[in-house]
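queue> holo job accepted (alpha-D-galactopyranose)
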Amino acid sequence: MEKKSLFPVINGLLHGGDYNPDQWFDRPDILEEDIRMMKKAGINSATLGVFSWSIYEPLEGEYNFEWLVDIIDKLYKNGIYTILSTPSGARPAWLDEKYPEVMRVDNYGHRNHHGERHNHCMSSPVYREKVSNIIHKLVEYVGKHPGVIMWHISNELSGECFCPLCIKRFQNYLADKFDNDISKLNHAWWNTFWSHNYNRFDQIEPPFKNGENTNLGLNLEWKRFTTWNMNEYMKSEIKIVKELTPNLPVTSNFMQFYGGLDYNVLADELDVISWDSYPELHNNYEKFYESMERNSFCHAIMRSMKRGKPFMMMESAPGFVNWLPYNKVRRPGVHKLSSMQAVACGSDTVQYFQWRKGRGSFEQYHGAVVDHLGKDDTRIFKEVEDLGIALKKISKTAGTIIEAKTALLYDWDNKWAIEDIKGLSKNTKNYDNVCLSFYSEFLRLGIEMDVISSDRDFLNYDIIIAPMLYMLRPGVADRLKAFVNKGGQLLATYLTGYVDINQLCYLGGFPGDGLNELFGIISEEIDTLYPDDKNIAEFTDGSSGIIKDYAEILRVNNASVLATYGQDFYKCTPVVTANNYGKGTAYYVGARIAQSKMRDIFIQMAQKAGIEYKKLPLGVEYHKRTTDGESYEFYLNNTESSVVVEDVNGTNLLNDKKVNGILELEKYEIAVVEL
Ligand code: GLA
Ligand code: ZN
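queue> job finished
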């Protein structure tokens, strides 16, 4: 792969964040200070105008952009580039007052009142028109400015709208999808059940809280529609900026584990993936390195949406956020560690929400680089400054990428389907956490892993892990077979292949759609365990692993049995199997076996696939960024004590020291080793 930096003008990694000078018009002294302090902290980019609509256009058709031109100029002259947001994330009062249709309707059918943010109707033609107007004005004033390097579309697109316009679009969407044939929809949603058959598409309502929300097909299609409609909305903004400024790349910031939109769909419309990373570090429910692993998993989800390209960490919090149950400050050294984690995972940026704390309103106590104190000698400021220096030292890594040969399948609509299963237990399905636990185990083995949707190309990989692949999209079963047939190592678990894309159960044995041939088993029953229950998987080599939550009872056709249950009425029946298929192997893990025991299976798969794994101390995170002829290894000590990592060779760019075999890292220390 050739090295391709996201921002050639920056010549290195981008360091910046949200900047709201429009909140400080009465304090020109502060604005002057900002530029001086940004330079001191090694900031080379600012994200402007995320929520500036009421300043840009205080009354309909009255515009005020001079300040923006002025600030972009000033920043540019000081080597600070602008990422320019479209202001559609929040609306001025006059707009809602005059055109109430732009305000969302909730799932009881009530129109929202004016206020808050991230709450426009995605279907409203009036909203699209007003957004289009303001973007045209923005471009007129600053779109061609050499300081502007990217468009940031809206902000954290999210939520649903149940207004009449959205309902109509939903009905049309369904008619389109089911070929205008209501009997097709009735069959797909199994509507004879509870007399749910519709006569016409225009009878269908979305899943109102006080209406039809027991129809699984409807629930799922509504989520898909919401993604489709949000994507259509986002595309309407992208179309305008691409027409007016074709050379500027476009992004829109995603959120960690956000469940309301299938980001894979939106990703295809964006030039670069960016996301807002707010890990809950030093919490009271997991170890620090486990929180870091969770965040690493989110980075991998985002990175993998555009394979072979760096992504952006668009926001993160220096200090703390203000919306967690407990907003603990970042301990000394953690800012650098978590920022470097983003770069290690493939981000070319470290960005903050926000540069300076606002004096008032909802986020006045949210962390920022500059505190209300206003000084550049605070602990937080100094940590940001220190990071700025470190980012310069590793600027060569910009444009390099992570080349993973293993992938974990993670699908939003699979997740939606699992969450809506009426059965098993409400409390323990935990799709996200199960996926995370597998990702973490690969991370601990130092094996780079992409996290991809099941419609991406499997043939880029040697190992595929498919946790709880409950719903199979069309073609997935065949593509998995082709993957294994060509020599791939595949692992699937309990709850694989129960339903098709409409959530109709497969007949003739799970996993369906031909997957029982691939795995050589049929899953006949699934047992749901109470939190205090457990079983045990006894492996043929004498080792064992604890089983919690779910246990399938398997019929083995032609697979070999690697482990059997140790307890209950299904004692001695198979729980883990492996089936040779073509040149590869298909593993089936019929129960939720402890993460630490899964490690042994993963090692076996890596050995078969010829993928090297590492001996890392627990809590040390490893990544490798490369391009033609260049390789950088990142080692992050996500623990509170010093550690020794073996087999590391090269130069640590952060301290210019040669590493010959042994790398010692202090608490939270990072090494970026050039090979
Ligand atoms: C989100 C938003 C920001 C800000 C932060 C606070 O990421 O995009 O505007 O509200 O949350 O953490
Ligand atoms: Zn609407």
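queue> The chain is about 30% helix and 20% strand.
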